[in-house]
Amino acid sequence: LRMYGLSPSEALSLYGVFTGMALPCILFPSTVTSSASVILMPSVAEMQALGHRRKIRYITRTTCAALYPSRIFMHTVFYFGGNFAGTILFHNTDAGLYIRTLSFICPFLYTNIALTSILNGLGKTGTTLVHSVLGILLRISFVIFAIPVLGIRGYLYGLLLSEILLSLLHIYALYHYGILAITHGNFIKFCVKYITFLSTTTF
Fold it and tell me: Residues 105, 25: contact at Cβ < 8 Å?
């Protein structure tokens, strides 16, 4: 942020607004997903040990379907209510703007928590580790190269893209292991539709 041209006090203030106000709002609903995932992992592990692949597929499909309404709902709440939350809760307009921008990671963030638990339950901890490292490396690259040019928006873009990458890698891994039955065509169509939606939205 200093390289972007902000003074030390401005950079610290902006960082505090982002990490202390906006980000906790986005992460708060994930406590429910995390709690469910804690229960999900041992169940998947037990079925994997018993060889019940069909039940694992059913649980995975059911989990993804159950998460869909909550993902869209939380994205909608944060996107349209972000400015209101920033003004009422924190009395800070910047916090509202960041909450609204971060709303785009909700569909991926909440999904990744559940998919990570499923992969870990399948015994693919090495796979989830590699995926997480790749996501973190992408985020770090945005910190190094994007923030000096775009400011805090560079980190927001990096955070969003890292969550998207993590979702794609998790979904592909589950497809590769025969857990998710999804065609390449449908997968590509989903990616194109969401990227188009993002490109038509003003951050």
Answer: no
